[in-house]
Input
Amino acid sequence: MLSVQPNKKFLNLNPRFWAYVKAVSQHTGYTVRNKGEVKVPGWKEIIETLESLGVDKASVHEDSGPTDFGMLLLSYFEYRATALNEGVKTNLMGLKDAKKLFKSLFKELKPQCPIPKNKQKHEKKGPAYFTGIINMVIEANLAGSGLECDFNPRSLTTFTSNTGLVRTLSRWIDGAFPGTVNPTAVWEIKEYYYTTTFGSRVADGIYESMLDGMELKELRDQENIDVHHYLFIDDYYTWWDCGRSYLCRIVDIMHMGLIDEVLFGKEVTTRLPVLVKEWVKESKRSK
Output
């Protein structure tokens, strides 16, 4: 199971780099439709994109060949495609797999944490499997630490100092450790096992997380307060069959520094325990 963590080579790059990434991706397309995989734009396509926008190609190509910037751009497209095609695709679960994993963990861990219900009706009504899996994994890895976790925040996240309030986020988040006041980590969960198309509600969820990331980045840059920000997503049909282009955008957002890490599907059972233990260490050091 391949974990897709941020590649340091593509972190802290100039915003102009991401302008090229987004423009080229839009012009050439994010996916190879008949193959069901994420696309790596060819060099000719990159040049054609710049020409169509009336942009001088000198930034990416000169007489001797691609510039360093051009090679970095192509390297990122190759990295993104590999990470998604070979990592994310294999981690995403469908409803049956998520239900099976949920039941196995529930039997093994005997959780005391909240297990929320989904928003479906009639025969589809039941546990929110992915959220339940996440909550159980976090609870199990907090055992013995003496620390709390807010699995269902019902208030805005706030940051304080000795002189008063520092920042208050604009949206409720889906989880906070240890709580919504001066948290060490916050996260959003996007599970869509019952969707039949990639609708605007799913797309909006990505940009909501991006807004959270912008506020947290501003907090880090201006106040030197660093909070871990995560996005947990699942459902093979929604994200892979229908939303591969949005998976590309999620990887972009992560490398733009607006999300620290994205966990995809069953990856939460292997990567999340590592992260929780890191949160516990940080929380104890800060006391």
Remarks:
- The chain has a mean pLDDT of 92.
- DSSP finds nine helices and ten strands in the chain.
- The two ends are 35 Å apart (CA to CA).
- The chain has two domains: 12-91, 95-285.
